[in-house]
Amino acid sequence: MAQRIKVKSVAAPEWVYPGTEVECVITIENITHEYVHTALTGMLEFLDLDGQDFSFQLPEEGNWTLAPFQSITQKIYFEMKSSNTVVHVWSWYWDEHQYAWVDDDWNYALIMEEAPPYEPPIEQRATIVGKRLYFLGTKEEKDIPVSDVLQGTRIRVQVDVRNEMDSWEKLGATVKITGPDGETVFPEEGHYETLDTAPGGIHYFTIPGPEWPLWPYVELEKPGTYQTRIRAFMKRWEPDIMDEYVGELCTVAEAPPEPPPDAEFKDMKITDYTRTGG
């Protein structure tokens, strides 16, 4: 019998990772001069998984009536399994003379399973390889933790993050500082670098960073032990933490008392005098 409903195309991606949602677009056309009642059946054939094939019908209930040379498009969605997959689609039409549904056309799409990209463990992506205090007054740098920092000192935190990947990556770092009584001295802040870092390269962060027209700092106002949380990030896996240091930042010593004001000579009196020597 002459064909009536043509399955023009079954369009789907050629390669798909397992676990990914697949969109499959099916287009059919009435290639006659008559109105035709039609429906579709289909099957997902998982070539590498015996006995797990899945059948479907479009529409799920009833049928469509297509005008002469009318085309329609339908979509199906499914999760890609760990198997190469064939999407089969058959068209059917209602034959008034036979009073039965007639199998008319068939088309398919082959979807190949693609292995997911390798993702190294977090500890092999980016690491903190240096952390220092920068002292604004003396412009010195000391490895964290630092002891005997003078009360009232103004500091910034320098963090060195190394790209452990074999690809160029955008690195980031944040710092949080708490005071001797557990209060937040510097809330968790940081930033990503502007350009990417080469494989094995190190980016040097200074936090707090410059904010035009000023460059902020942290002032250590209380004596005691300060704690910090320093984190390294990689933009590709944001917000996953690549590396982290949680521990002591520094200990701050109480500033020595201010010397008393110079006494005026008029208030000084000689109470005793002994001559020695010749």
Your description of this structure?
With 278 residues, this protein is an all-beta fold. The protein has no helices and 19 strands. It has strands at residues 5-11, 15-16, 21-30, 36-46, 54-58, 64-66, 71-79, 85-95, 100-113, 126-135, 141-143, 146-150, 154-163, 171-178, 184-192, 202-207, 218-219, 224-234, 241-253. The strands form four sheets. Strands 2, 4, 5, 6, 8 and 9 form a six-stranded mixed sheet that branches. Strands 10, 11, 13, 16 and 17 form a five-stranded antiparallel sheet that branches. A hairpin with a 5-residue loop joins strand 10 (126-135) and strand 11 (141-143). The N and C termini lie far apart (144 Å).
Summarize the structure.
The protein has 278 residues and is an all-beta fold. It has no helices and 19 strands.
